[in-house]
Amino acid sequence: MHSAEERERQRLRDRDKEKPFVELCKGLNGIDKVILREVRGCSAQVYLYGGQVTSWKNEYGEELLFVSSKAVFKPPKAIRGGIPICFPQFGSQGSLEQHGFARNRLWSIDPDPPPFPINNPNKAFVDLILKHSEEDMKIWPHRYEFRLRITLGPGGDLMLTSRIRNTNTDGKSFAFTFAYHTYLAVSDISEVRVEGLETLDYLDNMKDKERFTEQGDAITFESEVDKVYLSTPTKIAILDHERKRTFVLRKDGLPDAVVWNPWDKKAKAMPDFGDDEYKHMLCVEAACVEKPIILKPGEEWRGRQEISAVPSSYCSGQLDPQKAHLRINLAELKAQLAKRLGPDRSKLYFYYLNKLLSLKLSKVEFNKFCLRVIGRENVKLHNKLIHSILENACKANVPPLASTQDENGFEITSGGYEQNGEVLLSSPLGSRSGISVGSDGDFSSRQPSSENGDLDSCKIHKPVQHHQVLSKETNNEGES
User: Fold this and answer.
1) Are residues 134 and 32 in the same domain?
2) CB 228, CB 291: distance < 8 Å
3) Are residues 279 and 419 in the same domain?
4) Compositional bias (Polar residues) at which positions (predicted)?
């Protein structure tokens, strides 16, 4: 009998392990927090103070969010790290304190949350609510309801969905700016790049919010960065090469994206931030900053951010990890260059490029000849083509064709490229040849053109015998 009862208890325990887990408990300094756990072991912690996610771990128990070792978990100080909620003001533009007051208020468990679509029952989630107080109305005279659902999906994805409603009874509209101030944990900021924001306009907060256009093929970090990118795509990728991890951030209702790292001087000036902790964090934030959201009484705004952490190879390519094997079609890039250069100059340019890729021309010689041919005004497009060629070589899994012609009828051998835009790289050095990718063993370490418009020959020291060789050697170097 005892054995049967014990088996039944064990069966119930095993069954419970297969369900998402939600628990309300006490955190630091007795502040209430909610623990979310999904069936594979991924977890998240949410403090009711600030309605703030302070931990997000994968199934291996690895922390994916950064929280400073000097963070203060004591009101009224904001918690340094995790995902602070910036509302109703982002930054210091306005009459309110930095980033508004929502991150400094005690939220409540929502007793009557509105219905949310749930397409998978194995989600752990908590519904929080923040309403206006008499104290808040002295500094921001508006009535509102802010509902926040924090969801941990069955694959460990972390989603924050906000609903903000104007409940003013005086007929007045209100405007606000907003951000999910997400602190991501990274191995080394110098080994991180952000993709999806290239060629976009941004406001540089370090230069009085002056407007610029992003010039790099990807965003890398060598100094303090504080930028608001405008009209951004719904998907952004943050690649941590040392940890071979890619964060994919998806967003709705939030047109802007903030990228911030304080670097050394500002880190030392912040009392709740370690002097060297800037090396291990990066803020990439779904936001609405440039154009405030305006709500009339009774209107509701919704904004969502979802983050997933997936393994990444050294050559990420696509923002969608499931499509990372797809190669870039180079035909459009080549056509743009041919149109800008004209038949004679484009033929000469591709001739020099072919000689570079087949090791018949040094980088120094290539830069000298090529710059005269294309001019500095076309350097950026040239660099994009070179980068795309290497991305294709990294992702390719079929051998190249023997020969082809370019769009001008110029014969290109297997040391060059083919008409449909696929890379053709061959080597006189035999099957052991490969591309030297820098001291960190990372294709992504190559830099775009410098500020003075120098050519980027992408550190090519050895060409590739064929695509399989490159793919195999790169994967071996990337494995731990």
Assistant:
1) yes
2) no
3) no
4) 435-452
CATH code of the domain in which 142 resides:
2.70.98.10
Residues contacting residue 50 through CB under 8 Å, at least 6 positions apart: 78, 79, 84, 85, 102, 103, 104, 105, 107
Each residue's pLDDT tens digit, 75-132: 999 999 999 999 999 988 877 888 889 999 999 999 888 877 655 667 899 999 999 9
SS (H, E, C) 116-136: CCCCCCCCEEEEEEEECCHHH
Domain range enclosing 84: 20-312
My answer on whether omega of the bond before 76 falls inside 30° of 0, hence cis, is yes
Residue-wise pLDDT for 180-198, tens only, equals 999 999 999 999 999 999 9
> What is the C-alpha separation between 382 and 22, in angstroms, rounded?
53
User: Is residue 120 within 8 Å of 113, Cβ to Cβ?
Assistant: no
Three-state SS at 417: strand
Domain identity same for 301 and 359: no
Domain boundary among 253, 278, 312: 312
Q: Report the catalytic residues.
A: 181, 285
Alpha helix stretches (DSSP H) within 375-421: 379-395
Binning the chain into helix, strand and coil, the percentages to the nearest 5 are 25, 30, 45
Q: Are residues 156 and 50 in the same domain?
A: yes
